[in-house]
Fold this protein.
Amino acid sequence: MRFFVDTADVGEIRELAATGLLDGVTTNPSLVMKSGGKMADVIAEICSLVDGPVSAEVTATDHEGMLKEAHYLREIADNVTIKVPLTVDGLKTCKLLSNEGTMVNVTLCFSPAQALLAAKAGASFISPFVGRLDDIGHEGMDLIAEIIEIYDNYDFETDVLVASIRHTTHVVQAAKMGADVATIPPKILWQLVKHPLTDKGLDAFLADWAKTGQSIL
Ligand code: G3P
């Protein structure tokens, strides 16, 4: 399972990239707004830090506008993945860009039918938003199971990229279901490492080691 980080904060990305555990980055207009930077500059800097796919989202809502923005954004670096919303214009743009050999991430997916359309449009990634479904009383992870079942039935090559992750359990559930990618907020990525028994165990080992008076080197 690949781990992407869901942020446009270059400082956070640099720190996570240094762990060797980061496979890509997803951004969206809200995350770019939070970063305070200019979209093209932010994407260029992220691409200089991470070799894997870096999603940059178009903001036009019509097909021609999306295409123009996509053609501009994909010139920033080879690993730019164009993110389009799950609308008719977004799907049209996805089809055309994928025919041109550009990676496309179709975002704002909330139903299995939408995911099916994205795969038929040649998306490299589909981004179902599990947290936002949980927020309105649905079971977001059920959508992931349904999409995986549909994609497996037809051997679609579109990767299931679990988005809008709210806690570490979402990540574990996604892995158990065999989702291809999870895009995870930085705070939750760091939380994945933590377990109180790991900290307690390490403290005990170090206390006993100090009693030996030894040093390894
Ligand atoms: O980047 C898309 C998605 O992960 C957004 O998550 O937390 O705004 O629902 P959230």
In short: The mean pLDDT is 98. The first helix runs from residue 10 to 17. Strands lie at 2-6, 24-26, 54-57, 80-85, 104-109, 125-128, 159-162, 181-184.
